Amino acid sequence: MTKIIAGDFRTKYKRTLPMSKVEVEFYATLMVGELKNEDLKLLEKGGMKNGIRQLKKLIISWNMYGSKDDEQTLPISEESFDKLPASDLGYLMDEILKIIGEQKKSSVNS
After folding, report:
1. What's the Cα-to-Cα distance from 110 to each of 46, 49, 55, 104, rounded to whole Å?
2. Which pLDDT tens digit goes with each residue over 14-49?
């Protein structure tokens, strides 16, 4: 059996949000250690607010600033998501779901 070293096995993805043009780097899955009981309950409920809570954990970085003079990006938080059009968040969630679907297809075909 091949020795596998524990680590973060996730692939990083990038997408540009269509309306705001914010570039987002993200993972398409959470690590088991990131899931808590309340997260599992939220995933079952669905909805935009619950999706935002999960997106906070999936997003690695973005290029969204509060103003032209800011040197640091806005934090990846629910307050920062409030500054984005809902259609951009829907687009990002759809993209993540597409990636997950492709991953499932490729694992079934392997």
Report:
1. 30, 35, 28, 10
2. 999 999 999 999 998 877 666 665 555 555 555 666
